[in-house]
Write a structure and sequence with these properties.
Blueprint: H1 7-31, E1 41-43, H2 48-57, H3 68-79, E2 89-91, H4 106-138
Antiparallel strand pairs: 1-2
Helix pairs in contact: 1-4
Length: 143
């Protein structure tokens, strides 16, 4: 069973991918805190509507189809294809600019890192709870 075919897990996978990429960008911003002329970058906020639109326009749709033939076709389709989602980084200058032109403020970057970490933890917790519900639904009655 491929969890990407379940819309909830597809959205969670997209959210976790977004948060991982945002964490890399914030780390890059912190690493360049002393680079003259460096402008920090960030990602546009992740929204459910954008994720659904991207899924509908891509190879996988968000619809659920219960027929065995459709399930086999989806498994065959997703097995040979690696779909990677890349979010576009945009320039996101912080509130201050130093004399050498660097626009990174470490305090603001640490706030972004903390926000990303909390969102990542929440998404992982939601993923674990959802997996627990699937396991419970798959158990034989009376256990």
């Amino acid at each position: 069973m491929v969890l990407d075919n379940i819309p909830l897990f597809a959205v969670l996978k997209g959210r976790l991918g977004y948060l991982a990429q945002r964490e890399r960008l914030v780390a890059e911003n912190v690493a360049n805190a002393d680079t003259p002329g460096f402008s920090p970058r960030d990602l546009k906020p992740f929204t459910f509507a954008q994720h659904v639109a991207a899924q509908k326009s891509g190879a996988h749709s968000m619809g659920v189809n219960a027929s065995p033939e459709a399930a086999a076709a989806m498994a065959k389709q997703s097995g040979g294809m690696k779909k990677t989602t890349s979010y576009k980084a945009v320039s996101s200058p912080d509130s201050e600019t130093t004399l050498d032109g660097n626009q990174v403020v470490l305090e603001e970057q640490m706030l972004k890192m903390n926000e990303t970490r909390m969102n990542y933890d929440a998404a992982i917790t939601f993923y674990q709870k959802s997996m627990g519900l699937l396991r419970m639904a798959a158990r034989p009655p009376g256990r």
